[in-house]
Amino acid sequence: MEGLVSATLGELFSRCISFLINKYSTTPPLSKVESLQRLERMLLRVLITVEEAEGRCITNQAMLRQLKMLREEMWRGYYMLDIFRYLAHEERKVKDHQAARSLAMSIPNPGKCAFLSISDTPGEKELKQMLGIVENIITSMTDFLVLLKNYPPICRQPYSMHMFLGKCMFGHQAEMERVITFLLQREPPGEHKLGVLPIVGQGKVGKTTLVEHLCGDVRVRDHFSQIVLFCGNKSIEGELCTLRDGGIIKHRSTSVPNEEKMLVIIELEGDVDDGAWRRLYSASRSFIPRGSKIIITSRSENITRLGTTNALWLKFLPREANWYLFKVLVFGSTDPEEQPKLASIAMEIFEEFFDLEVFNDFTGPIANSINIAAILRANISIQHFRRILICVKGNRQRNPLQHSSVPSDTGRVENKHLYIQRVAKLTQDCVVDSHVRVGLADEDTPKITMDDVISGSITPRGRFDVVVWKSHLPPYYSYITSCEIRESKFMVARNKGCKRRKDLC
């Protein structure tokens, strides 16, 4: 009995001591500034790991998935960090300014802080959650770093980040490696089956660019003696007897004659007839060498049924990734922290244009980010950045998103024209046809670019063709449309409204 009492008292005593220690030794909560500093330090550790991993030839699919998770959480973390750095203090300034004028003004001007409603600035709760997420990510990196040493480094020259991003398909390295793993995988002995990988994605998401990167990869070129490209549904539905007929030769090598393998790439415009595909696939098996592979790309998810392996779904990068790319392209090797005012305006510009879906449908979000970043980078000054911000906000007002009453995949009606305010002369708009055609790399394209027209370096008269966007990556497509410069009807309506208000006063 005495032993039981002694044990009970001992247990109670130890719990009391533990309670007191926890109560009085608990670390006080971090302030917002301390939390942001801690988040920045942790994100730097993640960034070092990501860049080290991207510099190695990783073939393990599980490690590639973990690298993708690290990259996505890093983008999210830097996005939130920059929101607090560059927009949160602007929000406080706007609120203080509106409070000071509230006695003198009966109607507030919502346009003063329109970007804040768009960005939905996070609070301290979200900051604490992000700290917890990044801490968990860092804890899980230990085994990843150990395994990373087993993979050889990729030989390349030292680079500045903005130069490197200009030469790679940003944000899709994991998808690239997954496709390469499929292509290099050998067939089991005695089995002759053409492996088919479907790649599905929306227009302008980067399917063709991904394929071009694959065609240029040294590992793929060393593995296949020939790479052939077929474009359009006609090549499948009636024109070909086998996949050895026709096509565009992307690569041909005679260095490995005893191991001839073909990589066949088929770019479809939509769905494909099942019967036509089965006939073509069956006939081609007799002519295409063992170990050959087929890649099919399309916007239609129905092509997934044609695959012999799980389809690859190519998606647009998230908002946080686009901001990371945009910031690097604008400031290059310069640290944005050295120019906080410029960084703040740049983030306002990004928040304004990224949500403008009519332009995302027009050229795609990555093209928008690269185009606007180039315009900003041409003149790194507060005055220029503010002028671009005015134009981007004006473009949002000029191009409201139209919706259809008839149910469809997107529910949107394509605008016949887009109105883009000229930076050089704010009273003028570039009226651009919303339909673009794609120009190939070897095709003659217009000498006038949209950047030339917007910046004012050239002012053509009447309607003219213009290059809206030219890809800096293979296959170097150009997006071409027609355009006309007009006096802005929006500015005229605005001036009339201002004059009417003055007359009433």
Low-confidence stretches: 94-119, 402-413
Could you tell me the number of beta strands? 11
The largest sheet, given as strand count, sense and whether it forms a barrel, is: 6 strands, mixed
* Gyration radius over CA: 28 Å
Number of helices: 17
Shape: flat
Calculate the terminal CA-CA distance, rounded to whole Å.
95 Å
Please identify the structural class as seen in this structure: alpha/beta
Q: How are the strands of the biggest sheet laid out side by side?
A: 3-2-4-5-1-6
Range of strand content: 5-15%
Q: For the residues shown, what is the average pLDDT?
A: 78
* Helical percentage: 40-55%
Give the SSE string.
HHHHHHHEHHEEEHEEHHHHHEEEHEEH
Write structural notes for this entry.
It is built from 17 helices and 11 strands. A hairpin with a 7-residue loop joins strand 10 (464-470) and strand 11. It is flat and about 65 Å long. The chain is of the alpha/beta class. The strands form 2 sheets. The chain has a 6-stranded mixed beta sheet, with helices on one face. Helix 3 (61-101) packs antiparallel against helix 5, helix 3 (61-101) crosses helix 11 (319-331) and helix 3 (61-101) packs across helix 12.
Briefly say what this structure is:
By secondary structure, the chain is of the alpha/beta class. It is 50% helix and 12% strand.
Q: Which features does this protein show?
A:
505 residues; alpha/beta; 5-stranded antiparallel beta sheet; 6-stranded mixed beta sheet
